[in-house]
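@channel sequence for tomorrow's demo:
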Amino acid sequence: MHPTDPSLAGLHWQRNRERAGFLAVIGCLLLALIVQARSPKPCVLNVGGKKIGYVPAPRVAQRAKDEVEKRFRRQFGNDARFQHEVMWYPDKPPDRTKFLTLDQAVNTLSKAVRPLVKATVIEVDGEPLLVVKSRTMAEEVVRQYMTKYAERNAPASVEVPKTKEKVEYVDRDDVDARGVTTDVRKALEQLSASGATDRYYVTVEGDTGYGVAYRAKLTLERLQGLNPSVNLARLKIGQRLCVQRARGALTVVTVHEYARAEEIPAPLRTVRSNRLPTGKREVEQQGKSGKREVTYRETRENGVPVGREAVGDRILTRPETRVEVVGTG
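structure tokens (generated this afternoon):
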């Protein structure tokens, strides 16, 4: 058959048309696959292995994570980090699931993750009491807490204030930033409010100072220190006595010295004489009281006296003896 035969040319044209159509279909399929691969896919947000919501595309999850990281660093410092890993991956959401917007994803993620930071824990007798941002701040808080008792109560303390409890500072790098106190004043308020509160006793008929102290497991001196304006020797019915003072979380022990003038009673000397009837008394010489200065060392716990001892005694004026004559005649 000759190459220019019209029937042969028509056959070639038909085959080329079929080939072009096939290639066009393949091209459309490839284009659809490329568009599908590049189109956003719904993702699930996951924090520590727990699903917290669906977003319409991976870029929304990434932007939400970046925004939460920025917020945490602005609020808690550049060392703030997430406790759990934040992940996202393609997942078909359940029917009628609403995708989170960017703002919703940021808020949801902020609530789901815990920001961790470096901080210092103040421990009292091995128990965590307060978390502050640094060791320096922890030491300053305890120093100011102790100083207020040393300075508030005159006379001045003669020894370095100390605590009855064992206080330790523990540095950690995995503390929840939301529980860290960053202000010294607020830390002092929390430290002062974390102990016991005041307790009172209202006197009834027959009460004595000693009896109230005994029932409250106090010494009489301690009860007097808690109620300095009350005369424990003359209690009245209905009086309100403090038997426990709010002390805060730490018991600050201070030692004070002070001097007090005290009277020295005049000594009595009795002389027997038969010039007076039996049993009759006469004053032969009027006595006179003396004075002395006694130095006391007093121990206080959070400003309340708990004990004292005399450490010095100086005579200011000596007493004069009172002489009485007793008749024997």
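heads up for whoever presents: The first strand starts at residue 43 and ends at 47.
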